[in-house]
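Example record for the data management plan.
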Amino acid sequence: MKNIKQTLQNNKSKILFLVGINLFILLANLILWFENTLAIEATVAFLSFLTIIDLIAILQVYGEYHGIEGFLPAVKHLFKRK
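Corresponding structural encoding:
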């Protein structure tokens, strides 16, 4: 638990970046879900796009945490066999 607290304290900007992205996606989800102004296909497409953006942001921070530059090397590091 102490290691988690230290990691959070040392990486405040990365955590704020992820929180900001997730809050934006949550707000977009709530607006689109409750408004029903778009067709269901457009809503699903937009929410899928936002989910992909969120996953890319999480992978970016994961790569920075492990000292990896680039998207594909971060994905390879994430799924490598131990």
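Summary line stored alongside the record: The chain has a mean pLDDT of 76.
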